[in-house]
Amino acid sequence: MSVTATGPGGAGVAVGGRSTRIAPLDPVDAELLAAARLRAARLQPYLATAVFAMVPVPTPGLGTFAVDRFWRVYVDLDAARSWGVEQSAAVLVHEAHHVLRDHHRRAVACGVTTSTHRLWNLAADAAINDDLVDDALPLPGGVLPRHLGLAANGLEEAYYRDLLDETAAVEPPGCGSGSGGAPVDGELDEHPEESGVDGLDEVDAAAVRRAVAHDVSAAASRGECSSPGLVLWARDLLSPQVLWRDLLRTAIGRPVREVTRDPHADWTRPDRRADSRPDFPRPGVRHQAPEIAVVVDTSASMDQTLLDAAVTEINGLLRRRGVRTLQVVSCDTESARPQRVRRLGDLVLRGGGGTDLRVGIDAAASCRPRPTVVVVLTDGETPWPDAAPPRTALVAVVIGEHAPLPRGPGITSVRIGALW
User: Fold this and answer.
1) CA 305/CA 296 separation, integer angstroms
2) Are the beta carbons of 22 and 12 closer than 8 angstroms?
3) Crossing angle (nearest 10°) for helices 117-134 and 156-165
4) Hey, which bits of 213-369 come out as E strands?
5) Which is the most buried residue in 7, 98, 278, 301, by most CB within 10 A?
6) pLDDT at position 237, please?
7) CATH H-level, domain 244-265+284-415: superfamily
8) Hey, where are the domains in the chain?
9) 3-state secondary structure of 16
10) What is the tens place of the pLDDT at every residue in 32-82?
């Protein structure tokens, strides 16, 4: 893990071969910030790795601290001097919680837009500050759930949904893009790997999160961590999760095995025991190769990256089971002509409108030879048939967290939203 820290005098020092492009602090400000970081690490020792991983960026006139998604913490030293070491340390802990809890990614998953950045920032601040106040951290103000008419000990997503229903009168301080809110003035928008600007990339950030999660779990087991939200976050991060590829393999593999496991009589092939009873003809046997059709949702709401990954995995899975060609139907509200695909390079997807995949499922079931399994790749925002087509298994692969899974005879559903 390569992390750029602040050296003597506040100048950035390169770790892992990267040089700094962040202006150094003067000695007095550097001493104040160093004291605040050390105090922050003592306020919540299990967060020490995160506190020292954040890269300070002096930002005069900001009036507060903020953080971006690359773990750069923007500090107004005038505000820090007015707060003092104790309160500045508490604010550093607050900003560390934003990047630890991955508020930027969670905001994207919740569909936060530029018009609702403020509400998400309020929800995230309330969820963090609720825990910090319980831990007796000396925050200089800060929004709490009760200020918003919300219950204590809630999740950010739940607070956000409640705030969408009624406009909150409280203004958030503005914690930067790392909180899932709007970027603050002077925020750097460059990725550290591409630009050389100090910060943590996704790999380094994931390593810091896991290290902190282990420290939080260990502290909780010793009775030293009184932040229930942080303990839940750590246990969720460290708990084993089912890989989406395993879910997909199970969902598709079951109907394919049902087709291929039982042999079928075949008079075009002689029975290998026919010589023992020449007067009694018997057929040979053949294992039926499955015919697979894939219906691809090409409506405007589909994420191309997830779609490419799912199609690639299905192709690899079926090839391992002896399927050499796929019949692929792209569909939004209308079905395109089925394509016989031997290589993914041959696949052409068309669409971009609304969604009604019942049309595509009917088109796939009408292919010749008739498919034994129809796999549907979609975000789930579509009407579904009440049952699978006759003599055909239907596997619905729903990419996303919110759409309901289809139910009905012959339908197998799997969700692969947050597991990517």
Assistant:
1) 13
2) yes
3) 130
4) 263-270, 283-287, 292-297, 326-331, 339-341
5) 98
6) 78
7) von Willebrand factor, type A domain (3.40.50.410)
8) 5-238, 244-265+284-415
9) coil
10) 999 999 999 998 899 999 999 998 888 888 888 999 988 999 999 999 999
